[in-house]
Design a protein that fits this description.
The protein is α+β, with helices and mostly antiparallel strands. It is about 20% helix and about 30% strand. The chain is built from 5 helices and 10 strands; from the N terminus they run E-H-E-E-H-E-E-E-H-E-E-E-H-H-E. Strands 1, 2, 3, 4, 5, 6, 7, 8, 9 and 10 form a 10-stranded mixed β-sheet that branches. The radius of gyration is 19 Å and the shape is globular.
Length: about 250
């Protein structure tokens, strides 16, 4: 039995997220069906995380087990030949049996792109959050840095009915953020928020971005971040930012 790791890129706009769902197209379902067609075996694909509906990926990682002897390079070509154009397999490699894409992950990096042009070009609309209003990038950058470190991120966690892990309530929403930065690309009239952490809660990055937008707009201040974290109350943070601007760019092992 071989254990195959895939590195994936996808446009999530027309999918209901990563995880298989009844009567709704998902990334996992599309990949499992195409892998089964090539290998002749039904497989279960384990992803590093469940990206939400409309969220994109440039470096999602997944693995599956198979007895099929097709070389990895040939598997990449065969899958890309029959997958929808919105999903590409960037790489396939054989890994040790103990590897599991989700539980073996050490860190993940997400990027969120905020376009500030007056008019959003149609060829960017699926891949950015269009926000044509003034934002104070310095205030947003200061606030972003305050999220670094180990915190309870309950205030930034959306309700997740699919979450089944049985974990102690006192630390279930504790995560470590290694890097949280805002970069302003003035030539493109775009802000890029990047966050690298040990793991992320449901809607956590989008809720952080929604809060940063409130800070950039003057509705909140950077000094509000510690109080929001301490409150452990979703109602204290900002709204959930649109899915279109979010990308999973890298998973580390």
């Amino acid at each position: 039995m071989r254990n195959i790791r895939l590195v994936l890129a996808y446009d999530g706009t027309d999918f209901h997220g990563w995880q298989r769902q009844p009567q709704a197209p998902t990334i996992q379902e599309e990949l499992e069906a195409r892998i089964a067609k090539i290998t002749g075996q039904r497989v279960t694909l384990y992803g590093s995380g469940r990206t939400d509906a409309g969220v994109h990926a440039a470096g999602q990682v997944a693995n599956f087990r198979t007895e099929c002897p097709i070389p990895c390079a040939s598997l990449v070509k065969a899958l890309n030949d029959i997958l929808p154009v919105a999903i590409r397999v960037r790489k396939a490699e054989e890994v040790p049996a103990a590897f599991q894409a989700r539980y073996s992950a050490k860190a993940k990096t997400y990027r969120y792109r905020i376009l500030q042009t007056a008019i959003c070009p149609p060829f960017l609309a699926r891949y950015v959050c269009h926000h044509p209003y003034p934002l104070d990038g310095l205030r947003m950058a200061l606030a972003a840095r305050l999220l670094e470190g180990e915190h309870d991120f309950t205030s930034f966690a959306g309700s997740d009915p699919a979450r089944k892990e049985k974990v102690p309530p006192e630390d279930s929403n504790v995560r470590q953020v290694f890097h949280s930065r805002i970069r302003v690309r003035e030539e493109l009239q775009m802000m890029v928020y990047e966050i690298r952490g040990s793991g992320f809660l449901h809607h956590m990055v989008r809720n952080i971005v929604g809060t940063l937008l409130e800070i950039g707009s003057g509705k909140l201040t950077p000094e509000d971040i510690p109080a929001i974290l301490q409150a452990r109350d979703r109602g204290k943070a900002g709204p959930t930012a649109p899915a279109s601007g979010l990308w999973l760019v890298r998973v580390e092992y």
